[in-house]
Design goal:
This protein is α/β, with parallel strands linked by helices. It has eight helices and six strands; from the N terminus they run E-H-H-E-H-H-E-H-E-H-E-H-E-H. The chain has one domain: HAD superfamily/HAD-like (Rossmann fold, 3-Layer(aba) Sandwich), CATH 3.40.50. The mean pLDDT is 94.
Length: 163
């Protein structure tokens, strides 16, 4: 019997577009990343049987802003991911620990550095619309991670790994 698939997705970047910076005000004004809500609503029940989590590394102040943003955008209803599936941590490397604790099999983040921490504990890593400078520094991540530019690409990769 195969291990059940469990998806974890970073918030800032893949779900919430960060265009200018990362202050509380900028997060509060952010728009949803195109395709995020619809794709999650589709793949959550179909590919992951509802086992989808959001993992975010941020300060307590930004955590409060992100939680409010998700509520204001009606994310939980639209994406079919309950508030209980939110996980916050303070250090970048803690995302890998959360993935390990949850048994995550597929992890999406827009930071190559973050994925580098999870390289040994998550089967399928997806680098979402990466920063090219950071990717040059952490280019070894491409030995294991799939680079995707948007949610259309990500959906195709998630479906390809639905073996």
């Amino acid at each position: 019997m195969s291990k059940p698939r469990i998806l974890a997705v970073d918030i800032g970047g893949p779900v919430l577009m960060r265009e200018a910076g990362s202050s509380p005000e900028e997060y509060a004004r952010a728009r949803p990343t195109p395709g995020a809500f619809d794709t999650l609503a589709d793949v959550s029940p179909r590919l992951f049987e509802g086992r989808v989590h959001l993992i975010s590394q941020c300060t307590p102040e930004i955590e409060a802003v992100k939680r409010e943003w998700l509520i204001r955008q009606e994310f939980h209803e639209q994406a079919r991911i309950p508030p209980e599936a939110l996980h916050f941590c303070r250090k970048p490397e803690d995302k890998a620990r959360i993935c390990l604790d949850l048994g995550v099999t597929d992890f999406v983040d827009d930071r190559a550095k973050i994925l580098s921490y999870a390289i040994s504990c998550v089967n399928h890593l997806y680098l979402f619309n990466p920063n090219e400078d950071e990717l040059r520094e952490y280019n070894f991540i491409l030995l294991k991670a799939y680079c995707v530019q948007n949610w259309t690409d990500l959906r195709a990769m998630l479906e390809a790994h639905a073996d």
